[in-house]
């Protein structure tokens, strides 16, 4: 597999002062482009047995129905040549509909939902497709600056077919008024690259009167992928 | 042709519950090879430990010794309140001399793109012939070397910035 340089502006600025935590944590030097055989030949092999029955339905982790708007999120994971990335591990996590994470360090003054923990995992199918059911996450304040509220988002973690394709990102929802004020979203200089992180509302994926559908396709870096089985 | 790749965003401070399954799956090591531990501290530009960071280790050459492992050759650990992490490693065969003992990936709040690095053992006799190290400027190579601390124990700190800033990679 080949890994070409990402075009300027596609990756976020590692040091982006409006996002305060980047100032002391983002590397100051350009990453060193190197050849390495191993990262392009191998990857973790996640056994399907590691995927539990309710990992793709985040609304079924408690004793009852979670509060909020039930949604389905689906899309395809592709490489840069548009080939599906198959049997590939994908993890998601998010806050609940009130904007609070199931995490001891999240002290946001919003209720925890005893029926929603907000995490799941899955493998892509032969078409590179993933699909999960969840609750639409709420916006929440995060203290970065005055009136700092994150746009609603779901965190995604992908392993791809080979190590160098590893990606962690966030999926946002259409027409969020907070985009222009969010320094995490704005840390990506390229407008088109930012917009690729916004899911598309899909009536086709909407399930009757149960849940609204969103589509979010993901393109991992790398060309000429050799599809790998498990 | 524009690649249209999906760009990255930070893990934020709260992936712990979602990522715990893989921590558990790699916490106890079942290996047919000798093992060592690599421990260190993840530090920011002021040297302050990063207490909400994550390290993933990928050891393709060691995976064969870990067939009893739920995820062979892979580890995921969170840094603790002191920014410390500890990774147990199956030693690859002597034929792998000069290769990294593990490929590392660093994630943290404030790190809008995860960073790839690699670790070599200081007592690996093949370092001078290493294909990867030879591509790294000589004055920065020490940032990729784990120092021996005792029997089967090595130390490797990760510095996000500063004079000792760890070398991070972008693969060709």
Structure in words:
Chain B: It comes from Collimonas fungivorans. The complex is a heterodimer of chains A (230) and B (172). Chain A is 6% helix and 26% strand. Chain A contains three helices and twelve strands. In chain A, the strands form three sheets. In chain A, strands 2, 5, 10, 11 and 12 form a five-stranded mixed β-sheet that branches. In chain A, strands 4-3-8-9 form a four-stranded antiparallel β-sheet, with no helix packed on it. Chain A has a two-stranded antiparallel sheet with strand order 6-7. In chain A, a hairpin with an 8-residue loop joins strand 8 and strand 9 (167-172). Chain A is globular and about 50 Å long. The two termini of chain A are 18 Å apart. Chain B is mainly beta and 172 residues long. Chain B has one helix and ten strands; from the N terminus they run H-E-E-E-E-E-E-E-E-E-E. In chain B, a hairpin with a 2-residue loop joins strand 7 (145-150) and strand 8. At the A-B interface, helix 1, strand 1, strand 3, strand 4 and strand 9 of A face helix 1, strand 5, strand 6 and strand 10 of B.
Give the secondary structure arrangement, pairings included.
The complex is a heterodimer of chains A (230) and B (172).
Chain A: H1 22-25, E1 32-34, E2 70-78, E3 89-93, E4 119-123, E5 129-135, E6 140-141, E7 149-150, E8 153-158, E9 167-172, H2 183-186, H3 191-195, E10 200-207, E11 211-215, E12 218-219
Parallel strand pairs in A: 2-11, 2-12
Antiparallel strand pairs in A: 2-5, 3-4, 3-8, 6-7, 8-9, 10-11
Chain B: H1 16-27, E1 35-43, E2 53-58, E3 74-78, E4 84-90, E5 102-108, E6 115-121, E7 145-150, E8 153-155, E9 158-159, E10 169-171
Parallel strand pairs in B: 1-8, 1-9, 6-7
Antiparallel strand pairs in B: 1-4, 2-3, 2-5, 5-6, 7-8
């Amino acid at each position: 597999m080949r890994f070409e340089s990402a075009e300027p502006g596609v990756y976020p600025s590692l040091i982006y002062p409006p996002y305060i935590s980047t100032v002391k944590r983002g590397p100051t030097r350009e990453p060193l482009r190197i050849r390495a055989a191993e990262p392009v030949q191998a990857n973790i092999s996640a056994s399907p047995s590691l995927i539990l029955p309710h990992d793709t339905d985040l609304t079924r982790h408690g004793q009852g129905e979670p509060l909020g708007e039930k949604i389905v999120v689906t899309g395809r994971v592709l490489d840069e040549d548009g080939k599906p990335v198959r049997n590939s591990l994908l993890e998601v996590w998010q806050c609940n509909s009130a904007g609070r994470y199931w995490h001891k360090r999240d002290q946001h003054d919003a209720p925890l939902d005893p029926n929603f923990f907000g995490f799941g995992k899955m493998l892509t199918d032969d078409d590179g497709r993933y699909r999960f059911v969840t609750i639409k996450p709420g916006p929440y304040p995060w203290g970065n600056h005055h009136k700092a509220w994150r746009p609603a988002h779901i965190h995604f973690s992908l392993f791809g077919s080979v190590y160098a394709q590893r990606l962690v990102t966030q999926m946002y929802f259409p027409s969020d008024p907070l985009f222009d004020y969010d320094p995490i979203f704005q840390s990506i200089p390229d407008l088109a690259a930012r917009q690729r992180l916004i899911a598309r509302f899909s009536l086709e994926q909407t399930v009757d009167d149960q849940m609204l559908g969103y589509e979010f396709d993901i393109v991992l870096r790398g060309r000429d992928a050799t599809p790998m089985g498990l | 042709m524009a690649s249209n790749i999906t760009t990255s965003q930070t893990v934020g401070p709260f992936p712990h519950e979602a990522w715990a399954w893989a921590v558990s799956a790699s916490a106890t090591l079942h290996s047919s090879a000798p093992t060592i531990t690599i421990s260190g501290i993840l530090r920011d530009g002021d040297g302050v430990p990063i207490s909400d960071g994550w390290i993933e280790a990928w050891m393709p050459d060691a995976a064969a010794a870990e067939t009893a492992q739920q995820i062979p050759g892979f580890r995921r650990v969170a840094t603790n309140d002191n920014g410390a992490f500890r990774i147990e490693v199956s030693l690859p065969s002597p034929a792998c001399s000069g290769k990294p003992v593990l490929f590392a990936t660093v994630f943290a709040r404030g790190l809008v793109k995860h960073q790839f690095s690699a670790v070599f053992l200081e007592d690996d006799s093949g370092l001078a012939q290493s294909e990867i190290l030879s591509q790294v400027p000589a004055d920065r190579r020490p940032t990729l070397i784990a120092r021996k601390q005792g029997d089967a124990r090595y130390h490797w700190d990760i510095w996000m910035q500063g004079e000792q800033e760890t070398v991070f990679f972008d693969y060709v």
